[in-house]
Amino acid sequence: MRGLRTWWIAAGTCAVLVAGALVFGVLDERRNPAPTPQGVVVGQPTCLAPAVLASLIPGRVQSLEPSVDPLPAPGTIPANFHPTSAVVCEFVGYTADYGYALVRQTSRTGNLVAVVEELNRPSAKRPWFGECPTAATVPSPVVWLVNAAGNAVRVAFPVDGTCGNPLPDAYVAVMNLTVRDEQAHNLPPAL
């Protein structure tokens, strides 16, 4: 009788451990970042399309370049795409009277191999516990990689696990490229 009871307790303990491992595995799988879609090659980069401005500026502005076709979402760099430069779109702020949003567009060249390597890093897993303590410390520019033909891919930054902020190394790699050209755009508020 005692042997049967010991066996029953051992079997129950094993069942609890197996169920716990399965639940833990399912919960741990939910910590993985959502897969990033592959980037889509478009005819040329833009900082003024409505989709780009909506992701850059905290507020609605009038686009100076209304697009007929919606832009693809940011994504990974296609394997057969070989960038030779980058275009970086950044929200700088508002004019003193808040009449215009300021966007800086820079064309950059340099070590694109290092940039591609950093952008291809996987995003970090979300932690079990914790919350995002502060706003993003790394800005979120819109980055286009451009090939020799002038075609472009809007790229997604790998993100940290806690808050979904861009990984600093990817941001630094992009921003360390040499600025070849700079344009400033003043965008009026949306009507």
How would you describe what is shown here?
The chain is α+β, with helices and mostly antiparallel strands and 191 residues long. 27% of the residues lie in helices and 23% in strands. The protein contains four helices and six strands; from the N terminus they run αβαββαββαβ. It has helices at residues 2-30, 50-56, 112-119, 168-175; strands at 41-42, 83-94, 101-109, 142-147, 152-155, 178-187. A six-stranded antiparallel sheet has the order 1-5-4-2-3-6. The termini are far apart.
Per-chain topology:
Elements: H1 2-30, E1 41-42, H2 50-56, E2 83-94, E3 101-109, H3 112-119, E4 142-147, E5 152-155, H4 168-175, E6 178-187
Antiparallel strand pairs: 1-5, 2-3, 2-4, 3-6, 4-5
